[in-house]
Amino acid sequence: MSALKIKKGATSHSAYNLRPNYSDTVERHTLAVLVENEPGVLARVIGLFSGRGYNIDSLTVAEVDHLGHRSRITIVTSGTPQIIEQIKAQLGRIVDVHQVNDLTVEGKTVERELALFKVSGKGDNRIEAVRLADIFRANVVDSTLESFVFEITGTPEKIDAFAELMRPLGLQEIARTGVAALSRGAV
């Protein structure tokens, strides 16, 4: 019988140690999930998250193939790499799910969100709100003598920055659509 010798300081890699090295770092991921457009499918997808204590930062859903009765759910969530892998695997097991893409790991993406901001104010605050809206390329979609409703489209970070600047100027209410995302480049 021959014994296998391992040099001092070397590490042994077993074929049975198939568990990848995961980080404990929490990462933000954007998932695109193609599903059947049928009653209850969204509830099953959301149930997967709530049942396991996973958080959803953003959720959008719309029909993308009318003839094929398919909808696309875009989910922004956060977790360790291991949690993200579990989420993707569990989504893939749902019967009505056709495809799960992790846009974050597949390469560069284009992400946009639409938001409406109601800002009330008079005098200098009103003038400053309009000036900032111009800088952020936000459109005035409603105006009264005491308030504005601004429409802005951009990355979630741009929306957050606009909100922070509007708070001291009289921000009253925000409505956000959630993230819509596509991978960049050829398919």
Automatic annotation (TrEMBL):
Reactions listed under catalytic activity: 2 pyruvate + H(+) = (2S)-2-acetolactate + CO2
Annotated keywords: Amino-acid biosynthesis, Branched-chain amino acid biosynthesis, Transferase
Family in the record: Belongs to the acetolactate synthase small subunit family.
Organism whose genome encodes this protein: Yoonia tamlensis
InterPro entries from the UniProt entry: Acetalactate_synth_ssu, Acetolactate_synth/TF_NikR_C, Acetolactate_synth_ssu_C, ACT-like_dom_sf, ACT_dom, AHAS_ACT, AHAS_small-like_ACT
Pfam families, per the entry: ACT_AHAS_ss, ALS_ss_C
Entry-linked PANTHER family: ACETOLACTATE SYNTHASE SMALL SUBUNIT, ACETOLACTATE SYNTHASE SMALL SUBUNIT 1, CHLOROPLASTIC
Record domain ACT: where: 30-105
GO terms assigned for molecular function: acetolactate synthase activity; acetolactate synthase regulator activity
Purpose of the protein: Catalyzes the conversion of 2 pyruvate molecules into acetolactate in the first common step of the biosynthetic pathway of the branched-amino acids such as leucine, isoleucine, and valine.
Classification via PROSITE patterns: ACT (PS51671)
Known partners and oligomeric status: Dimer of large and small chains.
Cellular component per GO, a single term: cytosol
Protein name: Acetolactate synthase small subunit
Biological process annotations from GO: isoleucine biosynthetic process; L-valine biosynthetic process
Enzyme Commission number: 2.2.1.6
Annotated metabolic or biological route of this protein: Amino-acid biosynthesis; L-valine biosynthesis; L-valine from pyruvate: step 1/4; Amino-acid biosynthesis; L-isoleucine biosynthesis; L-isoleucine from 2-oxobutanoate: step 1/4
